[in-house]
């Protein structure tokens, strides 16, 4: 999961920690793309296939980061293939305190990557949010007074950042930026979402 190791992810995390958005009210994330290769492992349940497990993690992880907690309630819906794999998945999460979020991920829709986190003071908007490259160096703040602020950061390659960080951790030079507990928390939420969608289809 390489996205947190891009410089813009650090910028987003700093904005969320700063309180500049005010009290969080809404968020929406989307990661969709057409996956036309029928032989791809993502289409096979036995290989852990499905949109939720493949691109849903990118959608849900920043919502957990923004909220700083797991949802107190959630609901979800999925389009499932004859092979038992979700080709499209959507969810709604209630984090309490007036903050709710939605997401969508799909192997059927046109390519889209977007994250939007809305507070009482400002909204943070990030395009190409989950697979940023060296040229993805900005995010936008839409302020409650109507002004727009473009935030700039350095470019980078997420995979290189991830490998460099791992090497530093192995050598004892840093603690892991993402812990095993973070991964378990994320996967637990994904399991909850998948179970709700499965129950809805019965």
Task: Walk me through what this model shows.
The chain is built from four helices and eight strands; from the N terminus they run αβαβββββββαα. The protein has helices at residues 7-18, 51-67, 158-170, 180-201; strands at 24-32, 73-80, 86-94, 100-106, 112-119, 122-127, 138-143, 148-152. The chain has an eight-stranded mixed β-sheet. β7 (138-143) and β8 (148-152) form a beta hairpin. The model has no long low-confidence stretch (mean pLDDT 95).
| Helix and strand composition category | alpha+beta
The proportion of residues forming helix, as a percent range, comes to 25-40%
Give helix and strand order, one letter per element, not per position: HEHEEEEEEEHH
Q: Alpha-carbon distance between the termini?
A: 32 Å
Sheet of most strands: 8 strands, mixed
Sequence of strands across the biggest β-sheet: 2-3-4-1-5-6-7-8
Mean pLDDT: 95
Count, helices? 4
Computed Rg:
17 Å
Shape: globular
Count of individual beta strands: 8
Q: Which range does the strand content fall in? A: 25-35%
Q: Which residue ranges are poorly predicted, with pLDDT under 50 across at least 5 consecutive positions? A: none
Sum up the structure in keywords.
202 residues; alpha+beta; eight-stranded mixed beta sheet; 29% strand; 32% helix
Lay out the secondary structure.
Layout: H1 7-18, E1 24-32, H2 51-67, E2 73-80, E3 86-94, E4 100-106, E5 112-119, E6 122-127, E7 138-143, E8 148-152, H3 158-170, H4 180-201
Parallel strand pairs: 1-4
Antiparallel strand pairs: 1-5, 2-3, 3-4, 5-6, 6-7, 7-8
């Amino acid at each position: 999961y390489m996205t947190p190791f891009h410089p813009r992810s650090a910028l987003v995390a700093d904005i969320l920690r700063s309180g500049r958005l005010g009290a969080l009210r809404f968020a929406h994330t989307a990661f969709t793309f057409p996956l036309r290769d029928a032989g791809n492992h993502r289409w096979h349940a036995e290989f852990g296939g499905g949109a939720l497990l493949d691109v849903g993690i990118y959608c849900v992880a920043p919502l957990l980061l923004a909220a700083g907690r797991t949802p107190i309630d959630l609901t979800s819906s999925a389009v499932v293939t004859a092979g038992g794999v979700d080709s499209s998945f959507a969810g709604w999460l209630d984090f309490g305190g007036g903050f709710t979020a939605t997401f969508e991920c799909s192997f059927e829709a046109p390519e889209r990557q977007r994250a939007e986190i809305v507070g009482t003071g400002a909204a943070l908007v990030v395009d190409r949010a989950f697979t940023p490259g060296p040229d993805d160096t900005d995010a936008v703040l839409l302020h409650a007074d109507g002004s727009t602020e473009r935030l700039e950061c350095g470019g980078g390659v997420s995979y290189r950042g991830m490998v460099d960080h791992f090497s530093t951790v192995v050598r004892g030079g840093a603690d892991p930026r993402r812990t095993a507990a973070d991964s378990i928390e994320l996967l637990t939420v994904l399991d909850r979402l998948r179970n709700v969608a499965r129950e809805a289809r019965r």
